[in-house]
C-alpha cells in the first residue's frame, strides 16, 4: 500500500471515530430535551426554511425522504409542525412550524450552538474554519 492510500485510510478512520464521538456527545448534551438530534435538527430547518416541502428539508438536513417523512409525522402529531397544501402543486404539501414548534426550534438551536462551542473548544477559530472548509469539500465531493 502506498503512502497516499495509507494516509487516506487513516484520515477516514479518524473521521469515523470523530463523527461517532461528536454524535454521542451531542446526544448526551441535548438528550435532556427528550427529543433526538435528527428530529430537532429537522424541526429547526423547517422553522428556518418555511414554508418548505419535505424533500427540500430532507436535503437540507442530509437525510432520506423516508426518514424525513417519519420524523415529520411525529412533529405533526406533537403539534410542532403543520402540513398545508402547496399553492403551486396540488400533490405536494408545505411544512410550517406552530408557535410551540418555533419556540422549541429556537431553544434547540441555542442549545446546539452552545454544545458545538463546547465540543470544539479544543480548536482555535482558524482550525474550526479549516475543519469546516475541509468537511464541506469532502461532502461536496461525495454528493
UniProtKB/TrEMBL annotation:
The GO terms this record gives for MF are: DNA binding; DNA-binding transcription factor activity
Query: What's the protein here called?
Result: MarR family transcriptional regulator
Enumerate the InterPro entries for this protein: HTH_MarR-typ, MarR/SlyA-like, Tscrpt_reg_MarR-type_CS, WH-like_DNA-bd_sf, WH_DNA-bd_sf
Q: Which residues cross the membrane?
A: none
Pfam families per record:
MarR
Task: Tell me the ranges covered by the HTH marR-type domain, including all copies.
Answer: 8-140
- Coiled-coil stretches, from where to where? none
Domain of life (superkingdom): Bacteria
Q: Keywords in UniProt for this one?
A: DNA-binding, Transcription, Transcription regulation
Task: Tell me a GO biological process for this protein.
Answer: response to stress
